[in-house]
Amino acid sequence: AVRETGLCQDVPVTTSIQAPRTNTLPLETCESLNGPLRAGQRVTITLRPPAFESLAEARAATTVFPGVITVNSQRLSVSAGEPQPIGGERYVRVFSGVWTAETGNFRIVGERLGYTPSCTLTVPVG
Length: 126
Prior knowledge:
The protein is mainly β. The chain has one helix spanning 55-64; strands at 22-26, 42-47, 68-71, 74-75, 79-80, 84-87, 90-92, 95-100, 104-111, 118-123.
């Protein structure tokens, strides 16, 4: 039962809210940064391995092993951001790949020289 009292304004109604076209999924947390993952989103999957001990080591990282990110059995093209200082002579690089999310269950695995974070997630219908 509903009882109206006082001056009540109409509640706005919307048929649907458009999901953001892009999202970011850090493998270290498995939590997307721009709301829940939705089918059709362009998702940047990031991998942040432990820090490098020098700028030279960080710069050479992509020639030593550029890293791998897979979604189920699909291997993504991986790129590496520029080395970022984090104090002293230590540097980090964020490796990333882009995936267009689809409805279903997925196992996402990142790998870089023994550092292997992974996520299991479900992208809902709609």
